[in-house]
Write a structure and sequence with these properties.
Number of domains: 1
Radius of gyration: 16 Å
Bound molecules: adenosine monophosphate
Shape: globular
Largest sheet: 7 strands, parallel
Strand order of the largest sheet: 4-3-2-1-5-6-7
Distance between the termini: 14 Å
Structural class: alpha/beta
CATH architecture: 3-Layer(aba) Sandwich
């Protein structure tokens, strides 16, 4: 099982973010899950990779050439794919993962999260999309998502398809009991790599 992790390229300004990211990655590794992530060694991205590797996990990084220096491509991953564009990075991260989880991060993390979540809603894949809700980091985002349902922009099933989890055990349990929301539009062939 592979878990694609979207994570901040900064550590945040509270120790709890790195502590919980490290615990999460270590527990995933101990449970035998492989991690797919953005390939950098900075911020929570690096924390995730280091903790999983230190606990015997396999970690696959995918980094665009243009960011290999800025985000300091991690030197000791199980696999590192250097791709040409951000788009290729997101596509490969989405294709390789059996589920997606965002740990705290900024706009890059949000952008990656929303792309795979929107693809789920459109029925382009049927993999769970989760949030590691460290210190309630994502709770206001979840409130906003509830509001989209309240005002009639998303169905109840769509609203509840973005899943907060507390730790790795919760992620694994959530995956085991999960079923995708009904696709918003009738199925038709798509050429997008996010078909899974
Ligand atoms: P941030 O959450 O802003 O610290 O960014 C987390 C990661 O998302 C970093 O590795 C960024 O390079 C990456 N990122 C930002 N925008 C994109 C994008 N459009 N496609 C793929 N990765 C991105």
């Amino acid at each position: 099982m592979r878990v694609t992790v979207y994570a901040g390229s900064s550590p945040g300004n509270r120790p709890v973010f790195a502590q919980e990211a490290a615990r999460f990655a270590a527990e995933l590794a101990q449970a035998g899950a492989e991690i797919v992530y953005g390939g950098g060694s900075v911020g929570l991205m690096g924390t995730i990779a280091d903790a999983a590797l230190a606990h015997g996990g396999k970690v696959i990084g995918i980094i665009p050439e243009s960011l290999a220096q800025a985000e300091v491509a991690h030197p000791s991953l199980t696999e590192l794919h250097v791709v040409e564009t951000m788009h290729e990075r997101k596509e490969l991260m989405a294709r390789l993962g059996d589920c997606f989880v965002a740990v705290p991060g900024g706009v890059g993390t949000l952008e990656e999260l929303f792309e795979v979540w929107a693809a789920l809603i459109l029925g382009h894949h049927s993999k769970p999309v989760m949030l590691l809700n460290t210190d309630n980091y994502w709770s206001r985002l979840l409130s906003l998502v509830v509001r989209t349902g309240h005002y009639g922009f998303m169905s109840e099933e769509e609203v509840t398809s973005l899943l907060p989890v507390t730790d790795a055990a919760d992620l694994l349990a959530t995956m085991a009991s999960w079923s995708p929301p009904p696709p918003r539009w009738p199925a038709r062939p798509v050429t997008n790599a996010l078909t899974g």
